[in-house]
Amino acid sequence: MLTLTPLPGIPLIQSGDDLAALILQTCEQANLQLADGDVLVLAQKIVSKAEGRLVNLAEVEPSTKAVVYAVETEKDPHLVELILRESRTVLRTRPGLIIVEHRLGFVCANAGIDHSNVAPPRTDEGEKPDDEWYLLLPEDPDASAAALRARLEAATGARLGVAIIDSHGRAWRNGTVGVCIGLSGLPGVVDLRGEPDLFGYELRVTEVGAADELAAAASLVMGQAAEGTPVVHVRGFPYPLREGSLNELLRPRERDLFR
Amino acid sequence: MLTLTPLPGIPLIQSGDDLAALILQTCEQANLQLADGDVLVLAQKIVSKAEGRLVNLAEVEPSTKAVVYAVETEKDPHLVELILRESRTVLRTRPGLIIVEHRLGFVCANAGIDHSNVAPPRTDEGEKPDDEWYLLLPEDPDASAAALRARLEAATGARLGVAIIDSHGRAWRNGTVGVCIGLSGLPGVVDLRGEPDLFGYELRVTEVGAADELAAAASLVMGQAAEGTPVVHVRGFPYPLREGSLNELLRPRERDLFR
Predict the structure, then answer these.
(1) Do A23 and A62 have their domain in common?
(2) Which of residues 94-113 of A touch B (CB under 8 A)?
(3) Which residues span the domain enclosing A108?
(4) How far apart are the C-alpha atoms of B98 and B119, rounded to whole Å?
(5) Residue A171: inside a domain
(6) Are the Cβ atoms of B257 and A94 closer than 8 angstroms?
(7) What integer pLDDT is reported at residue B152 of this predicted model?
(8) Is A249's CB within 8 Å of B173's CB?
(9) How far apart, in whole angstroms, are the C-alpha atoms of residue A98 and residue A135?
(10) pLDDT in tens, B60-91
(11) Inter-chain CB proximity A171 and B257 less than 8 Å
(12) Number of domains in chain A
């Protein structure tokens, strides 16, 4: 059985907040004891906010390239500049949308930069009312996951996994799904090649995107709107935990038929 | 909380088997009472097998086009012919792989035709030892899901959802994930546009591929190899149940930047 439980009462996260302490405190209040094999799944937004990845758009100077893409996509050139800075290359554009290969290696819309659910970092009088704050992805989500995992494992003595997820659109299909953008302590991809199937044939091409399946499951319970819960506790992840990394999930450009 | 429970003891499925009866019987034995809002997720294979979608490759006559693709992809021309018959168009090829737009509208490898976990439909003396049996996807998975749901709802009085899933590779990322290829009684895509976010901004582009997130979650607990369990009971699907269809999940070709 696989059980996914959103942790209740995680507060709005600010730059510098201690996510590990908050999660441990929330688990204690919810009477939830972390156990060997459990995985904690975090929405990218709270990791980015805790790491202070907010950018004031007014302070971003658009390059010529950004201005060109801004015209083409009918987007704010300051935002386009931010997107370009976070990306290796632009794959496709259309009005309102820039699909890039992110500097972290995955393909996503608008470099994963978010405006919804983003509050200004402070509300003191010095802030200009027309400031527009945007949230970048964590600098290194695998490292963020590893640091969080180390803290949680040290506090609980349990062998845990930590995954950081975002919602991505997909080629060919409508609707976003949760995908893993950083992980520690669990497999990204599980290689079942060589395992026998029900009739003794050898499975030859079955590599399962286990961390992405987990991300989609957790995304389902997180929700997207006002009632969102950004941390999900998972019990019953069916594959053995091991060290893992985002890289397992990224198809190299030269082996990708759709880039 | 979202709970996914693989139903224990589903036997190997043969053509003509009554899946609804088997599921009801299994639920009874497992002391599991289906309740309003529950969703049952089925692996495509058992639906296809019950519907008799096995094909003996020896009886398939390759067309000239199939022979050409067979050389290009180093695949059996009989199998390529089957793939072409199940497809609208071929999108990409490389040795061992043909990526098609399936006649059902989604993009997948080898038209979803499967050899692993496929036993001959009968083992009587008349079968030639070198026969190669392959399994096609269900003729109309939405209809299969609807028929199954009607039976289950009639027997239990509960308002249920039924999803049929397969494992698909993806553009850009390694590893397969579960995706929905047919559904009844639950949303394919949930439109959150217009909902307020945490700070009162309106979410403008959030359409969630809810049935695909559910499929990925169920795929995670089904497993792929010998111990696979092809039916998963889901409690706690977080969106309201409604009529739904595969079509919601399929991006029309003219709006797809990666086809």
Answers:
(1) no
(2) 94, 96, 99, 106-107
(3) 54-122+130-135
(4) 24
(5) yes
(6) yes
(7) 98
(8) yes
(9) 16
(10) 999 999 999 999 999 999 999 999 999 999 99
(11) yes
(12) 2
